[in-house]
Amino acid sequence: KISGASVKPSPNLPVEGTPVNLTCEAIGQVFTRKWMKNNSDLNPTDNMVLSDNNRVLTFNTVNWKDNGEYVCQISNPVSSDGAKYVMIVNYGPEKVQLKGPNKINIKDTLNLTCSAESTPSATFSWLRNVPEPSSGLSAGAIAGIVIACFVLMAVAVGGGYFFYKKKQT
User: Fold this and answer.
1) Engineering a disulfide at 4: which of 27, 108, 126, 144 sits with its beta carbon 3.0 to 4.6 angstroms away?
2) InterPro entries attached here (predicted)?
3) Rg (CA), the chain
4) Cβ(5)–Cβ(25) below 8 Å
């Protein structure tokens, strides 16, 4: 009899661009292991490999498209069991957008909107009259890295505006 099925992920948090292993374990004599993603048979891609008689599902590098519910079905002629793991890949911030008018009149209200795709959700902060940072800062995006972009509105608001978003870890 098979019991105690589990899917154990790598100890590290799934972050875009990093490898992740999902290991399907059970107690008892296991004859077959079958993986599913979001209630459909898993079709391995160039980026994912099944090994050790389908016990280990390896993602060479995960991305947000790998998000979903992974189920490992274990069976033998006497019994079967299964376990699931919900993969949430941390990524971004990406596709940073700053929206606002190209021109405004002095003393008009200026509305700017900043958005980005990210998991977990990015936090946004707005600062006024902040000097430009050193060129050592990058616009790279991994957990905990600050992303910056600049908007100069000197005529309209009397100074430069700078916003940054910081990904929560």
Assistant:
1) 27
2) Ig-like_dom (IPR007110), Ig-like_dom_sf (IPR036179), Ig-like_fold (IPR013783), Ig_sub (IPR003599), Ig_sub2 (IPR003598), IgSF_CEA-related (IPR052598)
3) 23
4) yes
